[in-house]
Design goal:
Oligomer: homodimer
Number of helices of chain A: 7
Number of strands of chain A: 6
Order of helices and strands of chain A: EHEEHHEHEHHEH
Radius of gyration of chain A: 15 Å
Largest interface: A-B, 53 and 52 residues
Shape of chain A: globular
Structural class of chain A: alpha/beta
């Protein structure tokens, strides 16, 4: 049978680590959640060392994602793509920017790759905050793809704010943990 | 209930337009299929004016995709992302580049956006062929995102061949048809 449906999920353990009912009141709490998701994904060997989450601007968690490339056999199943899709499913729209609704922000444990940066632009989020930097990912063997200074300017010119390297050493530590644990570097 | 699973599908009519058992023997036949998918997606009002397909290097169709952003409420559901995911599901791997297996090629009715170009790099395809050009998409109101000459060089340096503007006028005609029909320009 030829596949006719692609399913994107997070591992079962994710639900026990997130709280949709409370507020993540500041950027540190939000970044920290993505790093926790990334670390747990490594420790439980359910995917690559990346986690992401979408919050609305009141700090309410709207969607989360963990890297599921190998588990889901889908090279597009990066944490950010999953988190954005979960958030859009939660609000019931292909965009997170809707009149009369709060703004949404994407947090990630690591700098988004070229695909995820493009996805961010189409998602309707107004802000992106990430922890580990491209250099940290590259040092661990992960390619980030064609992202340039002009790529960020492109998003900024369309009203998206970018904040880099928040809790960077904690985010980078998860990448190192993954390598130490012998995790596969897919798409080398 | 919070969504825990994202489903990516093509519209039902797609199956009647593709032939997994025969060979699409040349580039024109392969590009033409993606343009037909794009046009049908417009005429049936099931999505944006974009179609894509993955073939192996013997001309066997491996996966197809139509733009499903609005239908699936998912801003990442571009034709190329869907086609790559379907192809990976068909081969049962997160990469289309596997030892002892044929190479795979991505065809698209239009130049891939920044997200899809990144996705192409991670997918394992060795060649990308597209019809309508960025300028055609832009003229119809679609943003293609941060794609630069260096972006293409980045892929080419990693062994991916890019071929542009095949049957361009036919691909561009579908974009115009969509606008004439009053199709929504999401992510304007």
């Amino acid at each position: 049978m030829r596949p006719t449906e692609i399913q994107i999920t997070n591992p079962d353990w994710v639900d026990s680590m997130v709280d949709y009912s409370s507020r993540y009141t500041d950027d540190e709490a939000r970044v920290r959640l993505t790093i926790q998701l990334a670390r747990e994904n490594v420790l439980r060997r359910t995917g690559g060392p990346f986690g992401a989450a979408v919050f609305d601007d009141t700090g309410r968690l709207v969607g989360v994602g963990t890297n599921g490339v190998v588990r889901l056999r889908n090279s597009s199943a990066h944490a950010e793509i999953v988190a954005l899709a979960m958030a859009q499913a939660a609000v019931g729209s292909f965009t997170l920017q809707n009149d009369g609704q709060p703004c949404h922000e994407l947090f990630s444990s690591c700098e988004p790759c070229a695909m995820c940066l493009g996805a961010t632009l189409w998602s309707g989020v107004t802000r992106v905050v990430f922890s580990a930097m491209r250099e940290d990912a590259t040092q661990s063997g992960f390619d980030e793809g064609p992202v340039f200074a002009d790529s960020y300017r492109y998003l900024e010119n369309r009203g998206i704010t970018i904040e880099r390297g928040r809790l960077r050493s904690e985010g980078a530590a998860v990448l190192k943990l993954y390598v130490e644990q012998g995790g596969p570097i897919y798409n080398p």
